[in-house]
Amino acid sequence: MADMKIEVPRLQRDAFADKQCHRAHADHMETINLPPELVDNWQQRALEKMEQLLGRYRSLRDYLDICVRCGSCADKCPFFLGTGDPKNMPVARAELLRKVYRYYFTAAGWLPDLGRAEPLTEEVLNEWYTYFYQCSECRRCSVFCPYGIDTAEITMAAREIMASIGVANKYITEVLANVYRTGNNIGIPAPAWADNLEFLEDDIQEDTGVDVKMPVDQEGADVLLVPPSADNFVNLDTMMGYGKVFHAAGISWTTATYASEAANFGLFLDFNNMKKVNKRIIDAARRLKVKRIVFGECGHAWRVALYMNTLNGPLDFLEVPNPIHCTEFTLDLLKRGAFKLDKSANDEYVVTYHDPCNIARAGGPLEPPRELIRASCNRFEEMPENTTRINTFCCGGGGGLLSDEHMDVRMAGAKMRAMAVQTTNANYLATMCAICKAQLKKVNTHYKLGVEVEGVHGLFGRALVLNGNQEV
Amino acid sequence: MDSVSLIFNVLAYLALAIFWVGVGYRLWVWAETPVPLKIPTTPAPETLSGVTARMAGEVVLFRSLFRGDKALWLGGWTFHGALLLILLKHLRYFLFPVPAWIAGLNHIGVYAGEFILIPLLFLLVRRFTLEQVRYISVLSDYLVLLLLIGIALTGLAMKFVAGVDVVAVKAFMLGIITLSPTAMPASTWFLFHFSLVLLLLVYFPFSKLLHAGGVFVSPTRNQRDDGRIRRYVNPWDYPAESGEVTTFGGG
Ligand code: HEM
Ligand code: SF4
Ligand code: SF4
Questions:
Q1: Domain locations in chain B?
Q2: Which ligand approaches the C-alpha of residue A400 most closely?
Q3: pLDDT at residue A187 is higher than 90
Q4: Cross-chain residue pair B140–A63, CB shorter than 8 Å
Q5: Which residues of B touch A182 (CB under 8 A)?
Q6: In A, which residues are within 8 Å of B219 by CB distance?
Q7: SS3 A50
Q8: What confidence score (pLDDT) does residue A109 get?
């Protein structure tokens, strides 16, 4: 489909300067091993952290050094396009950190006026907290930068620096604390996890008359499925979709209460938590003696999943390649003839597909979800090319911004995605990310899109004919 | 040797030293800074040759910029193209004997010197006029363009205003690079041109002009997307303190 016309807003200085997320609670911060509140010598500690990160990340060092301020990225950020606030232009966002870098770590610090160098004051910290939490780390800017400067890398560094001195948002830290307590983001205890899967088994039984198992903690299964926990409580079609796929293909699988969550909010906060949250998935896989890990429909989880072997490897006990994305897994089976599909089951729908940013720009898959959608419905319409695949626009809720108090920012950030959906006739917006789904449901109401938001496996599961069970 | 020549020879060595040591240091810092994770912007190639092609597309054609801003791409690419021709043309002052292909570039090199003013002015004007670009620009962004314009104008002045003895220029340049300094050509325009170039050399390692090197080490562009096939090792990895995460609900 041809390009969508994108209106670039006039600059509205400080338009979103006062939109901040709620700050973290002390107990959550402590649970995830961070200072409960702003530490006394915060300035010095922040600079020490910055120095450490500069020594650890070539991306950070390089990107702070070489930006020529050409502006190619400026009008590519969904949050700038939605808010008009100039500090949401990726390059301007990066300058918030860069000006401090210049002041303390480069020769330009001696000539502050020549290149905008500034000390780390309380005001700057406040600005960081505002604008590094108005970035969803979606990487769209990096696609258009002649050097591939990824402002998400800068945002991540800035958030890690802030976290190290006790400044973080409530949403991310609460979710991380939940994961450590219960194994998943929403804080569901293990028995409830199992209950819900049983309930879904009954649902499928009622619907199709087929006895599809939704296993929990089953040792010796071939596949460990790690879905976002929201699939088991909100995006039920998707969860049932996975179950039907495994059933129809006759593959033994299990979920793990110890890792009942694919999402890894460490990505949005700091390396240490990312590593620890990731490790529990591997521990679960070892304990359950599975051969493969398949990830459910979650965007940033997949990004971290691709780091899995680096973060907590080597993973010699798993088959290569590892991990596998659920759409790759299902598509492979489909191509080998494992399924019988009845597209007409989805005839009430005109489907369009939203590429989650972390799927599109941090590892793929791009085509497998599309092939699965085409296989499961008769009417599929793409959104405009400059809003899909590598050009995809963030749903507006990624990167740890998905909290209620941040609704203005979220809806502004979603503007481009909403406009793109409106160019289609779709009444079913398919996507593969629990955050996108939660956010897009709100976007649907806010922008009156008139769509149902669900997963690719939700759609696929509806079209799957279960008694057509075959061996592969 | 007269005192002016002496001073300029000394300045030239100073500038060259700052340039090489500075650039070398900056490159070394990048080189020794680890890359903990695979972060290519995908879709990305899985092979070395694929990455080479991707990088070539960026460095030679400014592919991502083309995607981002067509007008800037045209201005930026022609600016760099002209700059490259001009630099190559100048090699005739440093090489003896002059390779035929560089001698052959002489004419087009002069055209490039005239032409480069157009994209340079375009780059400057857009910094003033485009609201977004004006907002992000810092003083040095303007100054470096003015510096380049100054270099181009003083260079052209030697061609069109007051000719310069190119034999004397060559003797002077060869003197510098062979460490046997000689007298500086007697030309005011040359003095200005040469001074501005020295300024550029000194400024280079401290500035955004380092993008010329930095583009090659950018992980989002130069990495292979093969993390699932080969284990990529984080050089500063440490063991996850698993003891702190054992209070889950089951499993
Ligand atoms: C590998 C070599 C180089 C590459 C790939 C490269 C690439 C680029 C690109 C893509 C841009 C952004 C768009 C634009 O404004 O053109 C840029 C900007 C710029 N480059 Fe280079 N460059 C290289 C070497 C150099 C050198 C050696 C100089 C000067 C001595 C230079 C001077 C500049 C300047 C001044 C700008 C900023 C233009 C502005 O103000 O908008 N570049 N370069
Ligand atoms: S990563 Fe996305 S949200 Fe953040 S600055 Fe870049 S385009 Fe904007
Ligand atoms: S596109 Fe890249 S170089 Fe240009 S302003 Fe943005 S980050 Fe800087």
A1: 3-222
A2: 2
A3: no
A4: no
A5: 248-249
A6: 58-59, 62, 148
A7: helix
A8: 73
E strand residue ranges, A268-408: 292-295, 324-325, 351-354
Per DSSP, the residues of A327-340 read: HHHHHHHHHTT---
Quick one: DSSP state of residue A116? T
**Residue B131 near residue A8, CB atoms below 8 Å:** no
pLDDT at A472 over 70: no
Whether residue A70 and residue B76 make contact (CB cut-off 8 A), yes or no, is yes
Question: What is the rounded radius of gyration, in angstroms, for the C-alpha atoms of chain A?
Answer: 22
Residue of B nearest to A176 (CA): B245
Q: What average pLDDT score do residues A110-127 get? A: 90
Please report, as a single letter, which amino acid is at residue A361: R
Architecture of B3-222 per CATH?
Up-down Bundle (1.20)
Nearest Cβ partner for A72 among B65, B135, B232: B65
Instruction: Yes or no: say if B33 and B234 are a contact pair by the CB < 8 Å rule.
Output: no
- Give the per-residue pLDDT at A181: 86
Contact yes or no for B251 and A182 at CB 8 A: no
Min Cα distance B194 → chain A (Å) is 23
Question: How far A93 CA sits from the closest chain B CA (Å)?
Answer: 10
- Out of B130, B232, B245, the one facing A71 most closely (by C-beta) is B130
| Cα gap A159→A266, rounded to integer Å | 11
Nearest-Å Rg of the Cα atoms of chain B is 24
Token pair for B42: 């995908």
* Res A461 pLDDT > 60: yes
Full-model pTM:
0.96
Amino acid at site A107: A
Instruction: Please give the pLDDT value at position A114.
Output: 82
pLDDT digits (tens, 9 = 90+) for A327-346: 999 999 999 999 999 999 99
pLDDT tens per residue, range B171-192: 999 999 999 999 999 999 999 9
Q: Does A316 touch chain B (CB under 8 A)?
A: no
Domains of chain A (ranges plus CATH)? 26-168 (1.10.1060), 185-336 (3.40.470), 341-464 (3.40.50)
DSSP letter string over B207-247? Answer: SGGGHHHHGGG-HHHH--S-TTTSPPPPTT-----GGGG--
Ligand nearest to the CA of A71: 3
The amino acid at A121:
T
Q: What percent of chain A has pLDDT over 90?
A: 92
pLDDT tens column, A352-401: 999 999 999 999 899 999 999 999 999 999 999 999 999 999 999 999 99
The first and second tokens of residue A444, run together, are 């649907």
- Is residue B220 less than 8 Å (CB to CB) from chain A? yes
For residue A455, what are the β-bridge partners?
A: A431
Whole-angstrom distance, CA of residue B250 vs CA of residue A93 = 42
Ligand 3 pocket mutation pick from A60, A63, A73, A93 by most atoms within 8 angstroms of CB: A73
Give the pLDDT score at B241: 62
> ∠ at Cα A166 (A165, A172), nearest 5°?
125
